[in-house]
Predict the structure.
Amino acid sequence: MASVHEMHVAGTDRDTADRAARAAIADVKRIEAKYSRYRDDSVTTAINRAAGARAVAIDAETASLLHYADRCHALADGRFDITSGVLRRAWDFKRRPPRLPSAGEIAAARDLIGWPRVDWSDERVFLPHAGMELDFGGIAKEYAADRAAAIVRDAGIAHALVNLGGDVRAIGPRADGSPWRVGIRDPRNAEGIVATMLVDDGAVATSGDYERYIEVDGRRYCHLLDPRTGMPVDHWRSASVAAPLAILAGSYATIAMLQGECAERFLAEQKVDALLVKADGSLRRIGHAASEQLVR
Amino acid sequence: MSKRRSARCSRSARGLAAACAAVALAGCALAPPKPWEKGDLARASMRFDTDPLQTKLTQHIYQSKEGAAGGDTVGGGGCGCN
Amino acid sequence: MAATDAAPPPRGDGAIRIGDRSAALVAAALALPGILPATALAQSAPDEGVVALRYYDYRDWQPGVDRMSVRSPSLYAFVPLTDSLTVEGSLVYDSVSGASPLYHDTVSGASGRGIGDYRSAGDAKVTKYFGDSSLAVGAAYSHEQDYISRAASLEWRTWSADRNRTYAIGFGAAKDRINAVEGVNAPVLDQPRETYDYLLGFTQVLDAESVVESSLTWSDGRGYFSDPYKLHDMRPDHRRILAWLTRYHRYFAASDATLQLGYRYLDDSFGDRSHMLEASWVQVLPHGFTLTPTIRYFTQSAAYFYRDPPFPQGFVPGQLYTADERLSAFGAVTLGLRLAKELPNRVTIDVAYNAYRQRGDWRLGGSGSPGLATFSARWIAFGIAKRF
């Protein structure tokens, strides 16, 4: 979650906005700390350290997130898997010069993947083999965005926009009634926008091959790895999905990226609006076919 | 006296029938909202129990000044104002 | 598990499974804590506590003569103990001065000390939330100079999967003891009264901006119902009450205001029948103010053993009798105005003024009991509450 976060609040007085914003930010920080892979005192670290040894007790919030991850896994036919973070060990995106992993390295990492193998319940979770890991990175940030929006809404604010590292969640339209204008970043040009999505009380999330990647021999290998093969996906450059909740938008976007050519049918079946950028740079729109998409 | 009683009973029965009819009619919800559309329903002014103290105190006033009172809660305790 | 809208209808190809799994994902998202706005329908333990203090000053009078005034501080607290258990309680202390309303001032010997000089009351309620239902257990205690009441209640609520409809079943029992040593007819020593209440109710969300609640209450009381400080007052020892209360709230986004309507019909075995109609408009104003005007109209018929003045017209020794104007036929109107302000740190203060008037000729249809002087009252309330 080390990216830019911002919040717009409109149509209310300064005191209310400040109070609501501070409460929302405090909750975002709480979730970030609770599920961060990098912190010693996080729930994630506690679970991962106990892998292969013992079960770890979890609270209702963590159990709900595991339920959600479980449903994502089912909906994506296994392509979405929160135990697939171990592939990081095979794919080192920070290494310079970049290097592709060997088949053996990938196979070793894949041995430790498998959400169906995780022994979990509403009270505790147990990773059966040492080295297995849970990674909430794909859902915790969007969950935080939805909670921040709920906090701001409960404070009586009717017009707000929360953006946590690219996951956008709106409450109501802008103060003048017009929808918020969310730009979709051009996957190959950090300053450019390929399209605008109009948001009127809902969320927009984008998953793309440009967040983390390496280029070897002219080919891009991004951080979105299919747990069944251990290899990155390459059908789409990015997928931006609009849905009533940020967590749904984020999951649909990630699953769309992982599904490759089946993404369009998948998104149409979820009845969401989406904008996909193909590997050749062309755009595909799902849902509203207008040039500017209205999201509710 | 008994004629008055039976007249009152039939008025009671009609009242009860009207109440049940209204209840049944209200059962046809017009446009039940999705969970994420319920933001306005969460406002304090939309709740039925926002200010328990105010409700208790006004109910106590009305119960002590109006004979035909009550019927708002169960087991709230009696009033000494016979 | 929280609800979702219905899954897409099955289509006969492999899409059936996707539809179910898609709905299951949405349901799991909605079940995440803190995602949905706290609902108005009390279906999960609120995670916010409240402490509130209220003080009200009540005075009533009849033409030319001050009758009674009451000063009453009260305290309320609501505490969530766990994420499925809450406890709340309140304490009230009324200090009363002045005479009780005397509408028939030719009564000799009745100096009007009918009301105890104080009243203190407390109640507590514990509510436990399960997945799709809740159970609340409550107890109440009230103590006046000549009267003690102890009551307990049980309420069970359950709601539909989409949480748009709630059903409630309630039961209450109260045991009172009246000890009016200075009763004007005879000392009333240690007279008991037992009341059992039953409630059946439902709440329905009509659309995203409106909600309706309706409940039927049946009360069955046996024991001492007469007024010990009113000469010749003798009432039945059995009172059954049927009440039907319906309330409707609707939010208007264009004005940022809420309309609150209420109607209650009541019929009891004393012969009282009453209608009560109440309307409030909760208007949100800039800078955290909320202004709420209220109007209430109440009309009742007379108890069958009520006798019109002049006292003691109609009194026959050994027969039921009352000259208590509270059981006469009249209409009453309340006009109220409340102003509230939100302060920093989740504190709210408010002040309210209410004016009340009761007149025989305001009864619906105009045929109120004759010979009653207009009864008026006003109360001012101050309140402060903090959420935490």
In short: Chain B touches chain C through 60 residues (CB under 8 Å). Confidence is low (pLDDT under 50) at residues 1-10 of chain B. Residues 2-26 of chain B form the longest helix (25 residues). DSSP finds two helices and no strands in chain B.
